[in-house]
Amino acid sequence: MIIFRYFLREILFTTFAVCTVLLLILVSGRLVKYLAEVAASAMDPSIMIAMLGYRIPAFLELVLPLAFFLGLLLTLGRMNGENEITVLYACGFSEKKLFLYVLCIACILAVLVGSLSLFISPSGMAKYDVIVRAQKNRSEIDNVAAKRFYPLREDKGVIFADELSDKNTLKNVFLVMTDESEERSLSRVVMVIADEGLQQAADNTSEQYLLLKDGVRVDGVPGNYNYQITDFQEYGIRLADNESFKEDSDVEAMPTTRLFESMDPKSQAALQWRLSLPIMTLVVAFLAWPLSRSKPRQGAYSKLLPGIIIYFTYVLGLNALKGAIESGEVPVFVTLMPLHLAFILIGILLMIRKHNHPLFKIAPIFRSEHS
User: Fold this and answer.
1) Pairwise CA distance, residues 73 & 58, whole Å
2) Beta strands of the chain (E only): which ranges?
3) What phi-psi label fits residue 187: left (phi over 0), alpha (psi between -120 and 50 degrees) or beta?
4) pLDDT of residue 337
């Protein structure tokens, strides 16, 4: 058990260190996207952190198998390079027993990844989906703050409110818009000053309007003296549709039990992908064990790059097969299991080759006997 605990500590420490780095990369990329949405007024800044938090389980389920694979390559490569594995062999530990230790650690992480992919991540994505839909229903006036110039969507203009009441009523509104109608020059500017403004939905439609009350509308070309000045009691301006923030997470947010009940190819492909992630954690143990061993004159991490290439070939193959199942090109009953079995077989063949199994000597011997 001492050796197992040593393997467990070293592998998990390296795995979680790599996982932390990869997770920070993914989160930072998503954060940049959300900041762009905030700048485009498609997202409320106050809920950005909540959205990131709900997506972290989905990031972890993707990152952990890769982090475990890299952790195995780094840890076992170091142990082989420093002859720790050789000393264990000399102390009576067989390679089979040490590999079983690695498989036990893989099973522990597979349970964690399975919990994330089957239960925790769909629950987080369901809450994330609620926030996304709420953001789609927001209008641009909902983000206006008092005493700040706020740009309207689609570069239509700028709005300023001196005060904002509890009922989202704007007080002392200043609005500047560009008039891009075909009948007028693109350089014309419309300036509106109103005592009050509020958002109002049109009857029987989803269109939103800004209704301004008791104000003045000035229409003209900057630099010219030909202006049209109109006093009004009510003046309506159609607001832009909130279509900037779009993400499709319906299937990702579905509970796993519903995916089992659904016969839709897209739902079945999503289910197979969720089941594949814990299986992938076990498969990479078969690949990492032979790839972590190197010849005496090679570096301890000489197989790191080939291992990464094999892993991404594995993931791309799973994605391609998943896409084929979604489109109906491959029957649902095929599942993703054949690809998992294929890479397990590759790992076993690499182990056999490392031991120079006689199977690989049949061809040279056969050629020498007939030469």
Assistant:
1) 24
2) 150-151, 157-164, 170-178, 189-201, 208-220, 228-238
3) alpha
4) 95
- Which of 198, 200, 230 has the alpha carbon at shortest distance from 215? 230
Q: List C-alpha distances in Å: 146 to 163, 168, 171, 197, 253.
A: 5, 10, 9, 13, 37
For 12, list phi and psi in degrees, rounded to 5: -70, -35
Structure tokens at 297: 């004159």
Q: What does residue 15 show for φ and ψ, rounded to 5 degrees? A: -60, -45
Q: Is 64 exposed, middle or buried (0-12, 13-18, 19+ CB in 10 A)?
A: buried
Q: Which residues contact 199 (CB under 8 A, 6 or more apart)?
A: 139, 141, 142, 168, 208, 209, 210, 211, 239
Enter the pTM of the model.
Answer: 0.77
Determine the Cα–Cα distance for residues 40 and 26; give it in Å rounded to an integer: 21
pLDDT in tens, 6-37: 999 999 999 999 999 999 999 999 999 888 87
Q: Is residue 128 within 8 Å of residue 51, measured between CB atoms?
A: yes
Q: What is the DSSP letter of 202?
A: P
- pLDDT confidence band for 157 (50 / 70 / 90): confident
Alpha-carbon gap, residue 319 to 308, rounded angstroms: 16
- Domain parsing of the chain, residue ranges: 2-136+247-359, 143-238
- Long-range contact list for 143-149, CB < 8 A, 24+ apart? 143/41, 143/44, 144/170
Contact by Cβ (8 Å): 214, 192: no
Residue 125's closest CA among 335, 274, 17?
274
DSSP string of 77-98, one letter each residue: HHHHHTTHHHHHHHTT--HHHH
Q: What is the DSSP string of 31-68?
A: HHHHHHHHHTTSS-GGGHHHHHHHHHHHHHHHHHHHHH
Residue 183: both structure tokens together:
């009948």
Token pair belonging to 243: 């279509």
Closest C-alpha to 242, from 153, 363, 330, 129:
153
**How many Cβ atoms sit within 10 Å of the Cβ of residue 81?**
18
Relative to beta strand 208-220, strand 150-151 is: unpaired
Q: Which long-range contacts (CB under 8 A, 24 or more apart) does 177-185 make?
A: 177/152, 177/237, 179/219, 185/221
C-alpha–C-alpha distance, residues 252 and 240, integer Å: 29
